[in-house]
Design goal:
The chain is an alpha/beta fold and 180 residues long. 43% of the residues lie in helices and 13% in strands. The chain has a single domain, classed as Rossmann fold (3-Layer(aba) Sandwich), CATH 3.40.50. Bound molecules: adenosine-5'-diphosphate and 6-phosphogluconic acid. The site of adenosine-5'-diphosphate (ADP) has 16 residues, from helix 1, helix 5 and helix 7. Its EC number is 2.7.1.12.
Length: 180
């Protein structure tokens, strides 16, 4: 399939470890581009949320049905010819493969930041089930996307607006031409 043009529907999967800013950046990006937004956090089962809240990381088996539900959301957005933006850690290459396959109308945005910076942001975050103590397990599982995955890689040192602007510029999209 040819790479999606600036007027073709596209789904952006905003990835990175817990606390890297996925929910913040993905929701702002969706707003800027006029696209539907979904948060991967909302696709977990109650059991998975309780497991993380209790300080135990998910494993491949627990993540598989979660990834399948997010894949279904992506498929539905493309089926509707609308596109969308979804926040999902998608830590491992295999997980991104599940979400995206070979499709070029789904792009990975990878939020890259140091353990130190992200640790501080998680420590300051309130009202979220994910404990700071799970950050090491997130980095242990992390397989940053390689060049063959054609990711849009952005550092997270700047504020959310600057990050969102950088992603939109890399996409060559401006508000109003996001989904044809
Ligand atoms: N670029 C940024 N600069 C400063 N703070 C940020 C930035 N992005 C996110 N945050 C804050 O960091 C915390 C983690 O962000 P969040 O979007 O919840 O991350 P994730 O969805 O990856 O877990 C939140 O408190 C959020 O307000
Ligand atoms: O696969 C996982 O281990 C979890 O899905 C995790 O990666 C995800 O990040 C959580 O949903 C926590 O939520 P936040 O990323 O919003 O902290």
């Amino acid at each position: 399939m040819a790479e999606a043009g600036p007027h073709d529907p596209v789904v952006l999967v905003v990835t990175g470890v817990s606390g890297s800013g996925k929910s913040t950046v993905a929701s702002l990006l969706a707003e800027l581009l006029g696209l539907p937004f979904a948060d991967g956090d909302d696709f977990h089962t109650r059991e998975s949320v309780a497991r993380m809240r209790a300080g135990h990381p998910l494993d491949d088996e627990a993540r598989a049905p979660w990834l399948a539900r997010i894949r279904a959301w992506i498929d539905a957005r493309l089926e509707a010819e609308e596109g969308g933006v979804v926040a999902c850690s998608a830590l491992k290459r295999g997980y991104r493969r599940t979400l995206i396959g070979d499709r070029e109308d789904v792009r990975i945005v990878y939020l890259e930041g140091s353990r130190d910076l992200i640790g501080r942001r998680i420590a300051a975050r309130r009202g979220h089930f994910m404990p700071a103590g799970l950050l090491d397990s997130q980095f242990a599982a992390l397989e940053p996307p390689g060049p063959d995955e054609n990711p849009i890689v952005v550092g997270i040192e700047d504020g959310p607006d600057a990050i969102v602007a950088a992603v939109a510029a890399r996409l060559g999209r401006t508000p109003g031409d996001a989904c044809g």
